[in-house]
User: Fold Orotidine 5'-phosphate decarboxylase from Johnsonella ignava ATCC 51276.
Amino acid sequence: MITKLIEKIKQKKAPVCVGLDPMPSFIPEHIKIQSYDEFGAGLKGAAQAVLRFNKEIIDNIYDLIPAVKPQAAMYEQLGPEGMKVYAETIEYCHKKGLIVIGDVKRGDIGSTCEAYATGHIGEIEIGSMTYSGFDTDMITVNPYTGSDGIIPFLNACNKYDKGIFVLVKTSNPSSGEFQDIEAGGRALYEHVGKKVAEWGSLSMDGYYSNVGAVVGATFPEVIKKLRKLMPYTYFLVPGYGAQGAGAAELKYCFNDDGLGAIINSSRGIIAAYKSEKYKNKFSSREFAEASRLAVSDMIKDISSAAGRGD
Amino acid sequence: MITKLIEKIKQKKAPVCVGLDPMPSFIPEHIKIQSYDEFGAGLKGAAQAVLRFNKEIIDNIYDLIPAVKPQAAMYEQLGPEGMKVYAETIEYCHKKGLIVIGDVKRGDIGSTCEAYATGHIGEIEIGSMTYSGFDTDMITVNPYTGSDGIIPFLNACNKYDKGIFVLVKTSNPSSGEFQDIEAGGRALYEHVGKKVAEWGSLSMDGYYSNVGAVVGATFPEVIKKLRKLMPYTYFLVPGYGAQGAGAAELKYCFNDDGLGAIINSSRGIIAAYKSEKYKNKFSSREFAEASRLAVSDMIKDISSAAGRGD
Assistant:
């Protein structure tokens, strides 16, 4: 799978991923009103508003980017109707040729982990047929339970040509509380990083592995260390834009081949029409055009960090 | 919320939770056939089979136990139809007076974490009304991102009188890979445990806190240490039965008041009809009666561990 992602990144000349995290406050009133009129002002109406919002943004940006990252939490908060729209968003993105990274941060053990793998990057047998619950290409996973919590995902990667990104160092201020704890001269995130590289060796796909890592853009020194520790691991990098990191912080994410990382922005793109930078140029009805301009600007900004990658 | 759980535990004289983890292989053929006939042999048919299976088990055990713990992964693997059945299972359990612990092991940061809290133990405003996506009373959460990943859940606990169980030491063989890493003379799970106790002090509900901990039954020495480190923290204890731990391992989970822990069994109860112990006594059509006997046997076994608690 990582080869497919890399091909798309090269084709679009954009190591960029757009986070589809439709918080209710991001969705313009006219979409809400229209959706509530049709489906009622309840969970279904709210979920359908999300779907319309997503589709209009995707229609306006799909040609510029290789991948999107829908954030499961934003759909889950709308209950089963929200999960239906999560699945429909994935399907719509696939129709537009995008790689879909489900930001689910799942993690458990044994057969439970297998069930998550089945639901998000695998297939389930029912009668004589197989079905996909949520048909994402890659997902984010949590390493806290150790190998028992990763191997089932790894097996699904190999069986179905899919990928995962394991949380190594997250972008939030308190990420250090546990991730920076030092043991044997190394921080926990380094111990996790080393394991991710090991797991990754069991699902190589060309130069890089299908097992990637989530590494926050907000800690450049950490990125430097991890880039060295795990040369064959693709980084999914949150924290650009709204969370404060810019292109300067990002240069260490990339290998000398200009590859090795995909930078995510969520609210910076999908809520661009509300931001200081773009709000005077676009009305709330032009939210998707604002997203397109924000994507273009982001790609220009990131390209300088990625260096000689093509 | 923890007071409500404790009252139910005392009322049923059973510090026991039944895990509703309906793996496809647990569901008897006659239920599958009936459900596929009615809803088709696809994701909907499979999900409806799960719902029937759950309901028949709940009907047969609800009077014996205080709480159930549906495992989200088992529903998620059936896509949106599965999540609908997850919500319906929660609703059905509530009608039977059970406390419902959603085993979702969610964890993220900031506004994303808020969305998970909203979806599982909170409410979302739509128009002039509020709605619950998945109306669980308590959920399991993952601590890897630190306080930023816990505070939003904590706020929901306080606002809606709900509870969480934070993963501290999981029951699986590889849990030590990261959780046992030693830093400053203490294992990571102790660092996490200490933090859980701190977070817990922000949501006290009587003697105990609404912030509990997941502590695997498979490591008695660890339980001893954690019980001392976090006296006001309720433990949700997986690993009993199918994962190998018995009553002897469990005695350290409980405080001198006979409280402080709720022991979970999943497949040992819901797939009892397939186990060595019960399979000769029950046919697959009597799966729910087998579950009832397994619950009774488990309560007897656990009571000896809980000591003088009533």
Q: What stands out?
A: Chain B has a mean pLDDT of 95. Chain B touches chain A through 72 residues (CB under 8 Å). Chain B has one domain: 2-306.
